[in-house]
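Hi Q.,

Before the meeting this afternoon, I wanted you to have the 4'-deoxy-4'-aminopyridoxal-5'-phosphate prediction in hand. No need to reply - just skim if you have a minute. The sequence and ligand are here:
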Amino acid sequence: MKRYAFFKGEIIPMQDAKLSITTHAFLYGTACFEGIRSYWNEEDGKMYIFKLREHYQRMLNSCKILKIKPKYTLDELCQITVDVLKKTPDQQDIYIRPIFYKSSEFVGVKLDGLEDDFLLFSVPFGAYLDLTKGLKVRVSSWRHIEDNMIPMRAKINGAYVNAALAKSEALVDGYDESIFLDSAGHVCEGSAENLFLVRNGKLYTPPTTGDILEGITRETIIELAREELGIETIEREIDRTELYIVDEAFFVGTGAQVSPIAEIDHRSVGTGKIGPISARIQKLYFNVVKNKIKTYSHWCTSV
Ligand code: PMP
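Predicted structure with the ligand bound:
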């Protein structure tokens, strides 16, 4: 099926969307992005984009931090996304990648006085991490970037070199994913996921002041756990060794969805099998994102 992109103000075939090699964002990583999922609901015969507005709200915050002047309003960004998706009538889950970027063709490191532009494309996308087996995870030897280095609160393209180093290190050593610590040794997040731990029936996750992305799935899980399962989430600093003694652990993210963890640094998480709370949260999450629970229909934008 022919795929389309929004590029330089219009919807064009994806293969025709090309950037110059001197584009500032390519030279220096001066861009911010979002990763959004759209789910195919077989029964409804419809596509639903999950938390579309929330993603663009975060993206506009990223723009502010990166001094990018957004060319489009929140409503326009949502509409552009729906318009692009309508051009390719997918009947499968897809991943949407909007990017605001420093578009000037300019050599020289800075943020001010440059042109900005916006592009968007979509690709078919299945599971990013295995959802069924329980992941084998390590603590990364790479420290996480911090708010005063490259802020994780903004989803900045260049910041993902840090993630790529950690993820690749994990993969070549036979793990599925990495967990980052900050320079004080506290747990941050996965390479592209937020992290939840279960201890004595409660959820624990690092706070948004802990050099993590303010995850949209993280917010969703906190709300669903509270409202639907009566499970409280405690947001606080987490020590490395707490990872070794928890009952359950799982990653959450638009890509990762809800991915249970079975082993961290060669210590089994709980029984080493997917735990009961992780399983309930995963099931609930998939029902919500596919618009199967009407209480949360307002999070699902029909294409
Ligand atoms: N942390 C990082 C570093 C990420 O890249 C992502 C994926 N966007 C997440 C957390 C999860 O965020 P969200 O739930 O908003 O996708």
